[in-house]
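Structure, all two chains, one model.
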Amino acid sequence: MTTDFPSLRYVIGAAAWLLVAGAGGAIGQSAPSDDGMRIYKSANCVGCHKWSGNGGGSYGGAAANLRQTQLSLSEIEETIRCGRPMAGMPHFQPDAYSDGKCYGLKESDLPEDKRPPGTNHPLRPADIKAVAEYVATQIKGKGDPTFAQCQKFFGSGTRVCDTYATQGESKQASAPNAVDASSHPRMQVEAAPDANAPNGARK
Amino acid sequence: MSRSTCAAAIVALSLGLPVAGFAADEVTPDRLLKADAEPGNWLTHHKDYSAQRFSPINQINKNNVKNLHVAWTLQLGGIEGGGIWSHGGLEGTPIAENGYLYVTDGWGSVTKIDTRGGQAKVLWSMDPKTDHDWAGAVACCGVDNRGVALAGSMVLSHSLDGRLIATDKETGKILWQRQVANPDKGEVITAAPLVVKNLVISGTSGAEYGIRGWLAATDLTTQKEVWRTYTIPAKGEPGSETWKDSYDAAAMGGGSTWVTGSYDPKTNTLFWGVGNPGPDWDPEYRPGDNLYTDSTLALDLDTGKIKWHYQHTPNDAFDYDSVAENVLVDAPVNGRPMNLVLEADRNGFAYAVDRNNGNFVWGLPFVKKVNWTKGLDAETGKPIEYDPKADIQKYNAAVTPSRENAKTLICPGNMGGKNWPPTAYNPDLKVWYIPVIESCNTVTVKAEDPAKKAKPRDVWIGGGPTESERITGSVTAIDVTTGKEVGKHETPFPMLGGLLTTPDLVFYGQPDGKVAALDAKTLQELWSFNTGGGVIAPPMTFTSDGKQYIALLVGQGGAWDKWFVEATPELKAVHPSSTLYVFAVN
C-alpha cells in the first residue's frame, strides 16, 4: 500500500496550508472584505438588508439600516451569530442558544414566539467574522449608497445600479457590458398615450 | 413538401384538423376565440377566454383516477436567485397544443416539449437573459413567471425585467422584443400575456414599490403599443376625485395588474383585476376610495377605455388586492338567466357581478373567518360599514389597520382568502371552486410622510405583516345559481397553486408537495400523490396521441417561503425545485 503515502502526505500538507491561510491570509486569498461581500450575498443578507445595507420595510418587516448602525464590530458579529430575539434577524450560528453565549440566554429562557428564527444555511465562525467585518468596514457609516458602490457589489452587467447614477457616471458606463451580459439591448418603454384621458387632454 | 403530404394537409385543413408543423398549427385569433372546440389543447392561460379552467375531457374520471400515476417528469431550470430572492419558483400554467407543451420557469425561460409517444423530448429552450438583480430587487413576492401565450407562429412571454418577447414557435429564436414595464420605477412582470385578436395584453406588478399601475396592449404586427390604460386615473380623469390628498398620493398609488384577465367576445370586453393601493397599510396617507385599486375593470379591447368598474374594498387598509382572474359564466341566478363575472377576492368574499353593467348580483364569504367587516350590503355588495362620504374607511374599526390602531389581527390575513392561484368552474354542475387560504395575520402600521417620499425602487408599504397563528387552506365550492357555499374540503396547508376541474373531478396541489383529485360533487379525496417538492402552480390537462394527461409544475418559491412560512412551519423543510410532472391513468 505504499502508493497511499504520497496522497496522505498531500492531505497533511494541504491541511497545514489551510491552517496557515486561515490564520494569516495566504497569498492568493481574497481580501476579507471580498469574502465578506461573497457571504453577504450567499447568506442572503441582501434579502432583507438590501445590497446597500439600507434595509427598510418589506413584507417580512423592517430590517435594520446597517449604514446607520451604531453597533461595534463585535456587536455586529454577535448579532449575526445570535440573531435578535423578538425580531426577524435569524441566528447564523446553528447552536446559538445552547450554552448561554448569546446575550446570556438559553433556548429554554425564550418563549417560542420570542426566539430569533434559525436559518437553513448556517454560517461557519470564520464566515460570520468575515461578513461582520464587511458590514463594519464597507457598509456602516457610508452615507447614501452610490453608483460606484453599487457597481462594486453587482458588477456592470446589470441595470440595477442605474437609479444611483448621476449625470456623467451614468448608464453609458455600464451599457457595453450590459449588452454583453444579456442578449438584449438596453431598451426603453415606449408607452401609448393614456387611453382614458379626456378628449384632447392626452399627453 | 411532397404532393401526397400537401394533399393530406389540404384534406386535413378542409376538415378543420390540425396538421403538425404546417400552417394549420398557426394559432389564429379564431382558434383562440373557439379554444373550447379543441378540447385536447390548452391554448391560452386560463384555457379559454372565460377563465373557467374546465376541461370536458373525462378519460381520467372518478372511476379510474385512483390509478393515476406519474407518466414522466422533466427537470427545468430557473432555480437561481437574484435581487432580494434566494431562488426562483414555478407558478406557471403549461400551454398545450397538438401534443406540444410550452412551459416557463421563474426567470422566464420558455421550453417547448414534444410529448408525443408518451415521453418528453425537449425541442428548444429560450433563455431571455433576464437581468436578475435589476428585476429581483423590486419583485415584492418572488421570482415567478406564470406562462406563455400563443399567437400565429409565435410564443409570447414576459420576463421579470419587464420585456414582452416573441419567440419563433418552431426554432425557439427570439423574433422581437419590447420593453413594456420599467424596473427603474419598481415595475416587473410575472403575469402570462393574453392574446386577443391582433393584440397582446401585458399587466404589471409593483404596488409595493410605489408604481402607478397600468395595462398595455401591443399590436402583434407593428410591435407597437396601441393603448395603455392606467389603473390610477390622472388628474381630471373620472375616478381621480377618489384621491383626496393634496400631495399627489395617486402618483404612487399602486393598482398592479399581475394576474391574466379574461375576455367576452360578445361585447368585445376585457376583464382584469386591479391590485392594492400603496402604501398598503397606511390608508390615511391616501384619503378617498382610491379608484381603481381593488377593483374589477371592464375595458374595451380595441381602445383600452374603461367601460365600468366594480370596487371591492374602497380605501383598502389590508392589502386586499382584487387582482384575481374574473371568471365569465352564463348561468341562471335564482331562476333568471345572467351573464356573470365571478371574482374571489383577497378580502375573503366571493362576488358575482353582471358583466354587462357591473351591477352586484351576489356575494358571500368563502373563508371560515372574516373579521374586518360584518358583511356585504345586500344591494351594492359594498362592505356594510362603507361610508361613501368618508375620507378614511373604518370598517370594523377594532380590526382595521390605522395610525391609531397600529397593530391589529386581520382575517383574512394580508395574503388574502385567495391570492393569485386560479379558481375553476364546472359548467355542468354550475359549481365554482375556490383555492382558499384560511388565514389571519398581524399587520403593523408605519405612517408614511408626504415630505419623505420613497425613492424609485424603494419599498412603499406603510407597515408590514407578521405571522401570528397557523394558516391552513381549503377548496371551497359555491353554487353559482344561488350564491351559496355547497362544500369545503379542508387542507393542512394554504392553497398556493390553484385548481383544475373536469366533468367529475377537481385537481389541486399543496405547498408540501401533495397533488390530489377530489370528487367534484362531494369534495371527497379520490387520489393523491406527493411530488417531493412544493406545489405553487395550477394543474392543467391535455391530450397527446389522443390520451389524456394531467400536468403541473413543481417548484417552491413565490412570497410564501420568504415572508409567510412562520405560519406553516413544516414548509421550512421543503427545498426549492424545478420540475414538470405529467400524470396518466394507464
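The first helix of chain B runs from residue 3 to 14.
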